[in-house]
Amino acid sequence: MDLSGNWSEENKDIWDLTKKILKQDLESQIFSTYIGCLELVNVDIACKTISIKAPSSFVCKLLTSQYKNKLSDAFEKTLGAPVDLNIFAEEALGAVDEAKIKKPRYVVVKRPNQTNSVKLKTKPVSLNHKYTFDTFVVGNNSQFGHAAAVQIAENPGKSYNPLFLYGGVGLGKTHLLHSIGNYALEKNPGINVHYVSSEVFTNELIDSLRTSKMSQFKEKYRKIDLLLIDDIQFLARKERTQEEFFHTFNSLYSSKRQIVITSDTMPLEIPGIAERLKTRFAWGLTADLQAPDFETRVAILKRKAFEEEIKIDDKIIHLIADCISSNVRELEGALTRIVVLSKLRKTCISLELARDSLREILRPKQLTPTVRDVTCAVSDHFGVRPTDLSSKRRTRKISFPRQIAMYLCRKHTTCSYSDIGADFGGRDHSSVIHAARVVSKKLKEDDNVANILNKIERDLLSQ
């Protein structure tokens, strides 16, 4: 590739202006992870071509598939005309042997009193090699969390420590956790990466206490360079385990070693976890994974079909994506169920067969309420106007219904705290969190509040 194009200060101005446009168009985390690392290497105004260098083939591939249109649009705004954009990886400049890259990496370790060397694989068996950034479908629901995960994998311990990923079941938290570990090992085979679920962490601790091997347990966990711990909420009410994890966390954090944690809810909302741990979980960066939108669900299913070499019509893909909206795991499971049924019946995958396989899902299908649905149901019950709930008024007549509405929005919609707050008069996420806490507390103390909620929910879900 000839990169000796006409480089000048004018080209630097073009790149600076284009980056300003992109910075306004993209989330700050995505911009710093994907755009900040790029280098403009060639601008040919006459031929309307631009070449950009990415630091790795992974970043190159992701930019080409996810952000190339945004980059092209930004350059078009800068130059006033469309351009042909070429994105390539830094290693593409040299002769790269693809076969060598895909081979398992080994380190040579010499044992005491042995003359021969022994080859050991560096990748621990706890990591699932199928879970990589390449196999993760990025949508609007996961862009921020994915970008943060990539940056962590690129430079563990350098920023965002800890990284705390939270979201519902089957939204990709575990996939991202393994992707971080796999990518970090690919980039630096000597790094000490350890993936563990909170349940396994607890069992290891119990076993160490039983066999009087706590010193080995502590040594193992406090020498890890990149600790990936899944489902931290399962440490709830396990005081001894929480205490040991607290000390492990402090040791790794103080030595600038990376910690990545997943949970089904945000740090400060995890029940049964010590406050000092919750506070530490929130020290770094917190990112939530939400339910995928329709387009992302279709992309996930197409990716799955491609990987499994399944020939399936787009109409069937759309049917599945329309039936299942909140769980990626169920989405892929539905596709697998259709394939299995076709094999059992020894017939091709048809729309009729798909409907038959998804009959139990299609029959009770219920639309997910929107924020507007919740607002209308709550205002009808309390005899106030929907606009009152998004107003700045703080009287008891308005504030309590508003808190109920925010609580129900968080429970029944797929909106984040920030999105809900924005719909209620531009309030921030902390207002929604406070409202949810207030209602949750009153539910335990006042049966009347429980009756009110039950009545509103019946009306809401029967619409």
How would you characterize the overall build of this protein?
The protein has 463 residues and is of the alpha/beta class. It has four domains: 9-93, GMP Synthetase, Chain A, domain 3 (2-Layer Sandwich); 133-289, Rossmann fold; 294-362, Helicase, Ruva Protein, domain 3; 371-461, DnaA protein, C-terminal DNA-binding domain (Chromosomal Replication Initiator Protein Dnaa, Chain: A, Orthogonal Bundle), CATH 1.10.1750.10. Helix content is 54%, strand content 12%. The chain contains 21 helices and ten strands. The strands form three sheets. A five-stranded parallel β-sheet has the order 7-8-9-6-10, with helices on both faces. Strands 1-2-3 form a three-stranded mixed β-sheet. Strands 4-5 form a two-stranded antiparallel sheet. A hairpin with a 6-residue loop joins strand 4 (106-110) and strand 5. The chain starts with 8 loop residues before the first helix and ends with a helix. Residues 1-7 and 92-125 have low confidence and may be disordered.
